[in-house]
Design the sequence.
């Protein structure tokens, strides 16, 4: 979670000045806030997240304590494959996250029917990923979404326009669910090579190989998703 610090500062001449920081990770913002308070000249501190929600320092500290027991620091990958003959799709999702001071990787896939194109399969894969996030309890947090479908990610971010009726329906459905969960999406298009885990899961789903696994990652080597 990233926030902006806005603080009202009392100068040596007893004048009030409102200062604003850059967007910072919440942990760093709280440390900076403590430094500000040590000056003895801070009249008010407000923290503003990406959704323009305002938080007090006390509220943020409490939120961090609650977040630690829930999935957080999430990076989520998706991919969809499509078989023109059967009109079936394979969708794959990979989620890296932290919970209770441990790092995890979740891998899962599914086979879907009655889709019209590879593009729709990619939307279905993103929708599947969002459902997975809901199932593991992700809410009111930023999530980094990565995939090699630049069309889906750029249309979701609003960078590219969308004119196809079916795609607009998927966009509306996805955005409604993200808003419902309070997820703050960060869209990062990547290459197919960088998306090989989700790609393999989608291919395996088309072959009828269903996979669902969650493993704890070794602390050394980080999460392995950078």
Sequence:
């Amino acid at each position: 979670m990233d926030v902006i610090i806005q603080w009202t500062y009392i100068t040596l001449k007893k004048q009030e000045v409102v200062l604003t920081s850059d967007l910072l990770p919440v942990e760093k913002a709280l440390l900076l806030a403590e430094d500000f308070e040590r000056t003895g000249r801070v009249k008010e501190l407000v923290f503003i997240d990406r959704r323009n929600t305002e938080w007090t320092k006390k509220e943020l500290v409490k939120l961090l304590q609650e977040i630690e027991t829930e999935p957080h620091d999430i990076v989520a990958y998706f991919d969809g494959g499509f078989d023109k003959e059967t009109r079936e799709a394979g969708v794959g999702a990979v989620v890296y996250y932290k919970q209770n001071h441990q790092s995890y990787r979740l891998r899962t896939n599914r086979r879907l029917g009655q889709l019209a194109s590879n593009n729709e399969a990619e939307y279905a894969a993103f929708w599947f990923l969002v459902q997975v996030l809901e199932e593991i309890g992700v809410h009111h947090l930023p999530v980094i979404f990565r995939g090699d479908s630049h069309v889906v990610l750029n249309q979701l971010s609003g960078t590219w326009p969308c004119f196809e009726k079916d795609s607009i329906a998927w966009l509306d459905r996805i955005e409604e669910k993200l808003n419902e969960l309070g997820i703050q999406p960060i869209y990062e298009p990547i290459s197919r090579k960088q998306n090989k885990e989700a790609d393999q899961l989608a291919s395996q789903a088309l072959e009828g190989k269903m996979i669902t696994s969650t493993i704890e990652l070794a602390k050394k080597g980080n999460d392995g998703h950078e």
